[in-house]
Amino acid sequence: MTCAESEPALTPADQKSPLITLTDVAAEAGVGESTVSRVLRNHGSFSEKTRAKVMAAVEKLGYVPNKIAGALASTGSPLVAIIVPSLSNIVFADVLSGVTKALEAKGHQAVFAVTDYDPAKEEALVAAVLAWRPAAVMLVGLEHTDGTRRMLHASGCRVLELLDIDGEAIDIAVGFSHHEAGRQTAARLLESGYRNIAYVGHDLKHDMRSGKRFAGFLEGLANAGLELAEQEIRDAPSSVSEGRAGLADVLSRGRPIDAVYFSNDDMALGGYFHCLAERISIPDQIALMGFNALDICRHTPQPIASVFTPRIETGRRAAELFLEGAPSQVVDLGFTIVAGATI
Amino acid sequence: MTCAESEPALTPADQKSPLITLTDVAAEAGVGESTVSRVLRNHGSFSEKTRAKVMAAVEKLGYVPNKIAGALASTGSPLVAIIVPSLSNIVFADVLSGVTKALEAKGHQAVFAVTDYDPAKEEALVAAVLAWRPAAVMLVGLEHTDGTRRMLHASGCRVLELLDIDGEAIDIAVGFSHHEAGRQTAARLLESGYRNIAYVGHDLKHDMRSGKRFAGFLEGLANAGLELAEQEIRDAPSSVSEGRAGLADVLSRGRPIDAVYFSNDDMALGGYFHCLAERISIPDQIALMGFNALDICRHTPQPIASVFTPRIETGRRAAELFLEGAPSQVVDLGFTIVAGATI
DNA sequence: CACTTCAGTGGCAGCGCTGCCAAAATTTTC
DNA sequence: GAAAATTTTGGCAGCGCTGCCACTGAAGTG
Predict the structure, then answer these.
(1) Which of A25, A167, A318, B100 fits A160 for a cystine, CB–CB 3.0-4.6 Å?
(2) How far apart are CA B197 and CA A343, in angstroms?
(3) How far is the CA of B235 from the C1' of D29 (A)?
């Protein structure tokens, strides 16, 4: 739960002037401390004349309020913790943007950390951020260690789980169903007449959500009495190169393949590049389908078919729900299959 | 400097149990508060027996130390603020990863914010983060408003400016010279025999660093007595679609062009897609050169020539310098021109 | 054996702010 | 014009922790 880590080296720059405090401002303005506090937070009542005096003193002294002290004195904290699996995937950066944009307008500050898709690290990071007594903790996905869950419950702060709704939410979940996305993708491919379908994916053990899509996809095929013609699951994070190598591998096996479902757009883009390089005609010889509908895949010579996911919206909505003090709930923001030129 | 924004709504979840404090742990363990504090921070001396008692109490009560209180009591703060222009550009996400990875090992916590390339917003965000009394503030680039500089100076905390060294640093700067990168890119293109060179760029007013590369590039051409054959500067953030449209535009003007320098790899990738779509042969008909050496551009059918920039390394190094308490300095991490199949 | 030494410990005063309460100033009311 | 209602204000006790200092008792010293 708590480990005695060795001290972080604190501010090395020695404070030249002992920083201005609220008391200094009060003295300068010739009013009481609480009055300054009220004016600065625009909270409670005070006269216009007082406000002017205080603001003048603040300006003159270059006072910057100390939120650390403020947060300690008032019990609530304006901090929101955001813990994401990775930043190299644009998906999480999008979520982060959405969250911070909605938060900053309300005077909240984001503290954040990256888990590298490691649940144990997530647990450690949750412990670390809880020490800051955040008003809310945002996590990606619904899968967490028991320790993480326990700490989160005990902390009493709001918990927002993002980008997934397939499972049990701790408090609020905002996202969409990956399982359903996988299912519908399969349905769409079948509708278009493809029957020899391959899957090229990445590291399922760590990326739970791509695993859920894969399961949904298989279910979609099974419903039509079909199964995957080929599959290649790379033991690495998703990337263009893995996607390219993965498709190359699948095709090298010689079995006829008329469509390929990739675990996401990075992988699909790699597959697309493989086809371009090998002069494999798309979609005549082979159809490609990705996931996320990244901007980049909309601007390839032939736009790659994909599934649009509301990433920024997920972040924004989560922040809003938290700000509103919404009750525990699961918000399904849905997804949209976008046809490209590749199916 | 400071504005009276209206209150953020604080923790809406009502604390069920008045959270465990260090005093509770001390009582449970039958020792003094300072002893618990010493054990938990592994600081000062205490017996193994005491340590065990304290840890047992911590475990039993599920105590999570309150760093807000800790930071207030000790003057230094283990918070580091990171302010980036954007998150949609992978470059800044990389820097962020580098920074947080190096920081978390040392018990520091990152707080972060996004400016959207707006210096005024940067100033507001600096004011906001300074209220958390961070041990360091990390910013991208060397261009800041006077207000930002003034606040940063007055704060007395370390200031790290990342990804640029062409200019006056406030405290520590870590990065490389964009001007020089532009110059060397021009030299390289000239070396390869190209003479009818075009530039396709994005929004220079906001992205200072791409402006510096452009200036360096022009200088490189001028040194050889040349100037740009064509140029197209999009009034938008860099993206694949802008790059594609930009190149299309330049080529439509009918002037012979044998090489194109793009403001970055996103733009270059767009240009590459345009060539693929229009069956323009690369590099026979036209050579392409980007900037950043993104992974994705290394895996296109023909790898796109680019300039590798040490992004994660910049973040890591900056964090290390801060942790070491290094003196003010400018660290040039350099860059590397990487040949692709497109020049 | 009286002396110093020092690891191990507890007490308590803040850190800079907010929240509460009561006092003071102002306005309203009859 | 005095009383009542209201607005504005200041004082001060914490928030939960750390840093300092003083204290303990066991070990080391001559």
Answers:
(1) A318
(2) 38
(3) 82
